[in-house]
Structures are given as structure tokens and as C-alpha cells.
Amino acid sequence: MVKNWFHVDQLDSSTYRIHEPYYWQANNEYLLIGTERALLFDSGPGRRDILPIVRGLTDLPLLVLASHSHYDHIGNHRRLKQLAEARILSADIPATKSMTIAQEICPPLTARLSLLPRPFMVDEWLPRGGSIDLGNRSVEMIELPGHTSDSVGIIDRSQGFVFVGDFIYNGARKSEATFLLGALPTSDAVDYLRSSRRLREIRDGARILGGHCDAEVDPRRLDDLVAALENAMSSDARRSLLPFSVVNSGGTSLVVSSRQIRTASNGHQSR
């Protein structure tokens, strides 16, 4: 049993990063506290109970929102609902609704990437561009499809943060290249490029905080991601006979589906 599984970093007076350095993916979860409610963005892989950490930071009613439905971001959802009466939020978008049966999200294997089923009930569906009122602090949910079809982020304009889950994150060491996955079962390189460009436009100087390893992502990595995706659309990736290709730009490497890139490129050329 590893002691001190969770490490807590205070980002400002009412925002915390909850880090799991001993988990193999070094996940980050984020706790945003208002005057009336608190929001936990991602609940982690569930290898340890995150509730004592959350309750050590706030006793306010708890909202929980996952950046996407991979197993390592929804692992504590059911536990938090049962033990803390947390309200589980989800984006009201086709990608999540397609996984829903009677208000319960049941991510299939291709969406959760784990043999263990991880269903969870949803208490509130957030509309596209919907805001979450925490009491004297309002944050906005944004769609970020690309890494997965159901990826979302949170922009906290008042505090100057944008939380992006696995959309972009640092390598194991911040100085190392970022290695991102854009070829998973529900990934889409075209959406990834569109979302990257949009995030770059709306970020407005906010600090980018990722879902793994060191929290804060250098904005230049976002520029690298845009360039890597643009390169993929016009590079050898579309001519590769291999199922996957790796495209690089600056400090970012991205795995993409060669067939998907060919399809997207052909569609673009035909218009």
C-alpha cells in the first residue's frame, strides 16, 4: 500500500490540483470551489478513494464532471455519488447520449478502454456552452472532440484557467516531448484540429491545465498540436500503409490513424 497516494497542489485560493503520482498515468484531477458548490473535474482511475481528499479541502455540495469517459477519468464517479451524494454532470452531446440508458452512462469498451464496466448515473445534462454556477464563480463547459468524441473542457475565465483533460498534456517530464493519442477508437483527427484551433482562439491567456503529469501546459504545445495536425493532413501519413502514423511538431508527437487521415484528405480535396 502506497502512502500519500494523492498529492494536493493549491493553484490559487479556491482551486486545487489533486495529483496521483504513483498511478502509472500520473493523473490530475481538479477541484474548483465557489461559495455555494464545488466542482471536481475528473474523478481519477479509482484506484484510491478520492473523497477524503476532497472533503479535506471543502465540505460544500459536490458536482462531478468528467473530461471524457476513459476509465482513468471516471473511476470514482459511482463512489462519490454513493458516499458524498455528489451530483454527476455530463455534456448533453450525441457522443455521451449514445452511451446512455435511462440516465445512466454505460461507456462501451471502445469508449472506456477498460475491461471493467464503469457505468454511472447522470443527475444533470449540460447544454453546449453551458455554464456551471458554483456561487460567485461561474465556469463554462466547452466541447473538445478529438482525443475522444466526448471530450470536454472547462474554462474558468475569472480565475484564468482552462482545464482540458487529455486533450493536451505534458510528458512524464515537462521538458520532454508530449506524446498524444489521436488514433483511439473514438478519436478523430479532423475534430482534433478543429478543436485545437478553437481552443487557441478562445483561451485568451488562460493557463492550460492537463489531465496527466505536470499540470500546466506551455501554450506553445498547443501551437505544436495545431501544426502537427495540419502536417498530418498534408504529409506521408495519408500515404502510409501502416495503420498508424506519428506526426511531429516542436515538442509534440501525435499518433493518428492513417486511414482516417486519407479519408479526411480525400474529402477535403473533393470539395
Structure commentary:
This protein is of the alpha/beta class and 271 residues long. It has one domain (7-270): Ribonuclease Z/Hydroxyacylglutathione hydrolase-like (Metallo-beta-lactamase, Chain A, 4-Layer Sandwich). Helices cover 24% and strands 30% of the residues. The protein contains seven helices and 19 strands. It has helices spanning 51-57, 77-84, 94-97, 109-112, 189-202, 219-234, 258-270; strands spanning 7-12, 15-19, 28-33, 38-41, 62-65, 87-91, 100-101, 104-105, 120-121, 124-126, 131-133, 138-143, 152-156, 161-165, 178-182, 207-210, 216-217, 244-249, 252-257. A hairpin with a 2-residue loop joins strand 18 (244-249) and strand 19.
Task: Give me a quick take on this structure.
By secondary structure, this protein is α/β, with parallel strands linked by helices.
**Biggest β-sheet strands, sense, barrel:** 7 strands, mixed
CATH superfamily: Ribonuclease Z/Hydroxyacylglutathione hydrolase-like
Q: Measured on Cα atoms, how large is the radius of gyration?
A: 18 Å
**Percentage of β-strand residues:** 25-35%
- How many domains make up the coordinates? 1
Total of helices = 7
Assigned CATH class: Alpha Beta
Would you report the number of β strands?
Answer: 19
Helix coverage percent of residues?
10-25%
CATH topology: Metallo-beta-lactamase, Chain A
Strand order of the biggest β-sheet: 1-2-3-4-5-6-10
* Class computed from helices, strands and strand pairing: alpha/beta
* CATH architecture annotation name: 4-Layer Sandwich
Order of helices and strands: EEEEHEHEHEEHEEEEEEEHEEHEEH
Q: How confident is the prediction overall: mean pLDDT? A: 91
Large-scale geometry = globular
Low-confidence stretches: none
| Separation, N- and C-terminal Cα atoms | 58 Å
